[in-house]
């Protein structure tokens, strides 16, 4: 056998196998998505998202306290308004007494060192369930949509969020948010994480059940990216870098490892995040329950694939599990 053909000597021991990884998983890499409802004492299980709940602000201490003790470093908040008057511009999104702003203040008071990111979108708060504002002819009106998203992001920054993460996919919203943060003194205080390559995926179903964010009509294919659009994803990543994003995100994760690799190339000086979305999580859990594979083994395999592709931050509902698994 030719000398160059022999590779197995380099990974014949468990320790030497670990050296083959360019990066290894750590607790700091995991951000936990949590759903906050405007019912303060709520703890409502989400049937399509196993083990996940909608939480009221008064339940956050008992819910997050044990996870913080285990090493939880960051969360991302999604508002689930139940008792509000939704309108065409998503007015409840930046309500100072709404679920997200209330949760920011609660978490910051309980755990000052816990990093708090906030998803910024309008779909949970608009009467039509879409992520932007419409013209009279029924088409999306991008400039006022971006301006409205920027208002919401600024409100979260003022409430104490460490990071704002617009998921709406409106053109120009990164620049609008960055400008608003700079103009109001938050440009060097708050991170802007862009859902840069967010695809119109079939994997969002459990999330929409959790957040009540399904559109009242039509779909989101005119602003979320087509699954086949590799070139468009690359353009969106470069646009968001140029508009001032501090972190680039790809969503979903596992079907788009090639896009994660592209993002690592195109935004090589930026942290790179991916979102292992609700449908990915639910599929992995379902497969494990059906005996197809071991849950922990498959969770690690997927997370390690994200890191191998270039990610430094993973948003996943497996975060509580990894806090335990990484201790063992």
TrEMBL record:
UniProt keyword Lyase, yes or no: yes
Keyword Mitochondrion: no
Cofactor: Zn(2+)
UniProt: Zn(2+) binding residues: 121, 123, 131
This protein's pathway: Porphyrin-containing compound metabolism; protoporphyrin-IX biosynthesis; coproporphyrinogen-III from 5-aminolevulinate: step 1/4
Assembly, per entry: Homooctamer.
UniProt name for this protein: Delta-aminolevulinic acid dehydratase
UniProt organism field: Dichomitus squalens
